[in-house]
Write a structure and sequence with these properties.
three-stranded antiparallel sheet, binds pyridoxal-5'-phosphate, about 40% helix, about 375 residues, alpha/beta, 13 helices, seven-stranded mixed sheet, about 15% strand
Amino acid sequence: MIPYGRQEILAEDIEAVVAVLQSDFITQGPAVVQFEQALAKEVGAAQAVAFNSATSALHVACLALGLGAGDWLWTVPNTFVASANCAFYCGAQVDFVDIDPRSYNMCVDALAEKLRWAEGAGKLPKVVIPVHFAGQSCQMSEIKALADQYGFCLIEDASHAIGGRYLDQPIGACQYADITVFSFHPVKIITTAEGGVATCKSKQLAATLARLRSHGVTRDPSVISAQDEGGWYYEQIELGFNYRMSDLHAALGVSQLQRLSAYIERRDEVKQRYDALLSDLPLTVPWQHPDSHSALHLYPIQLHDPAERRRVFDDLRQAGIGVNVHYIPVHTQPFYQKRGFAWGDFPQAEAYYQGAISLPMFPTLSEAQQDEVVVALQKALT
Ligand SMILES: *Cc1c(COP(=O)(O)O)cnc(C)c1O
């Protein structure tokens, strides 16, 4: 089976992890700091804080921005459930903004319209999470202007998008958001097995993220209330978690990060080749916004006849092509339907979902494998 995404682990990755295994620290050692610094440099961020997953990073990012009971978090339905669930972890409520039918990202007009309504209804969001779907940045400049106008915070869910660019800046520099979150699950662009990072501009915000990552505990003399008690002393000043990344995972991340730009280039080649080979088929290839250079985590095609999606998907799986679908609209999940959402609420995300299939897209996909995918797809569609 050719999967829809997969990691590449080289000898140098294995050596990097083994070196940590043989060192004094397998967690809470120097590799995590090294990974944070290397990643911050790579994406042009002032601060980076590593977590054991992007989900943990999203949770703590929401808390650090003050999200709590009585607050609203808005995201898109076309995402993984984690982008929305983080609100419930904080006791807040979730609402959604529909997607743009071309980019499949948060629709700026739908956001603006919903904000006008929410202002009147007294339901303005405290946090909005645009998701850079498939690796392509949302229209952050316009979204940031709305954040300034209505006074909400922005977390970019860039789980798909490390290595991508927006208006010639790397995603993660936080020019348009308070916090950006990356995921390093093996299907994503680079991997730490499990892991995530939150980047931000403010040193103080980074300190809060790091404290919430580790039980709400601090040794920072400028934060603790007591006089100098001694070298052992720490204080828990709020309720945090154990969301730390281990040094084993971080070492893998440092090693993988060195291949980030090569991976993006290779994904670009795979995309160009798909675009050319699929041009005569009854489907739409992923559209690229001129402001954005996608990291191309996914290659989601849109069948012109959604009624054929189930059969085409099954035919491809039957032919050994591990296609997938991204995403079942979050608001249609049973958990969300129990909270009042229903089919019909976000028609663009639902229409997109009906015709969507993600083709295999990863840097080590060979031309022969790609040809296999294309032939199977041609067969299924004719
Ligand atoms: C993968 C993913 C997450 C969660 O990442 P983990 O590191 O697995 O917790 C969140 N949001 C989006 C959009 C994702 O694709």
